[in-house]
Structures are given as structure tokens and as C-alpha cells.
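Researcher: Please predict.
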Amino acid sequence: MPDIDIAEKEAQLTSQQLTLIKNNAFACLIVPSAQGELPQITRLPLVLDEHRLCLYGHLARNNPALSSMAKADKVLVLFDGGHHYVSPLWHHEQKVPTWNYASLQLTCRAAMLEQADDKLKQVLEMSRLFDPDWPVEEILAPPFAKRLQQMLNAICAFRLDIVASGGRFKLGQKKSPDYHKTIAGFMRQQGKEQLAQWQQQPPQEY
């Protein structure tokens, strides 16, 4: 099975990259397929374990990406941290039109979580994270037991251990503080608050 060929860096994530993951949890999972075939691409939410430096997720058991992931040495996960067009009309330092953005790509090794307790723990943690007002303990009540078991049987959970990182904060880092403040203001007008924060105080580009 071929590996995904990308430029890799040591798996040490910056605070900005960790924020990007947590604020943009709906990721793109790319799994290599057989030689000559297109990779399996799946969109899904992933939960970050910052201390273990891994991601947790699950897919429907009939998702074709699962069988490929079980055979793959590594998979690729892409996070989109936002993007915005930048016009030369906005600041004199911007000589031509461009597009600023924040992105992150992670190379990971997948480990399948087969035990029901592991799957349940993941489902509960994900529910508490994305829907904290929902009383998730309701699904643990005896009347829900059969339906809960059916739900757990229908999914496959997994852990993605992060082994390398890439991506880019492309925000015109070499331009002046006035440029960044001005461009951030235009981004805020379009509701791009997180990207505007990075634009005003840009992280390291790569």
C-alpha cells in the first residue's frame, strides 16, 4: 500500500495550530487506496487530545474508507482554518489581488478502537464537546439500552496518532503592522473573526 507523499515536519504543534484544530473540527480525511486508484476522501468531525497529540473520530461501519485505513501505513488529515480574498484597494502594500488563509495538514497513523466501551466513551466526549447543553446521559438510561447498542454496532471508532505536521498560515507576514491591522478589519466585516485575529498578529507562516 503506497504512503501519502507529503513534506513532513516533526509532530510538534504550535498553540495557533492547536487552536485551528479545536475551532475547525470538521476535517477532511484522506486515505490511500490501491495502486492506481484515487484515495478515499471523507469529511468528518475529529476531537483533539492535546496531551496525547492524537485525534479521535468514528465513521459508519459501511464507509469504504475504513477498510483502506486499516491497511494504510499513514493517512492525511486536513483542517481549514479559514480564508479570504484580499484586494489591492484595501492597503497600499497589497500590490496585486491575493487570497490569505490558514490551513493545517497532519500525517497520522490510525488505530482502530473495537471495544464497545471505547466507542461509547468517544461518542459521549464528542457529544459533550459539540453539544454541551444536551443531557447526553439520557442515552445511558435503561430504556435507551437497545438503541444505544445498535448505534455502537453501526460505527467504527478510531484514534489518529499525529506523527508529522505541515500546512501554512499565509497572511503576508512580511508586511507592516498597519497592513495587518487594516486587512484584519476587512476580514472582521465579513465575519471572519478567527482569521482576522491571526491576520492582525500573524503566526509563523509555515
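Model: Residues 1-9 have pLDDT under 50 and may be disordered.
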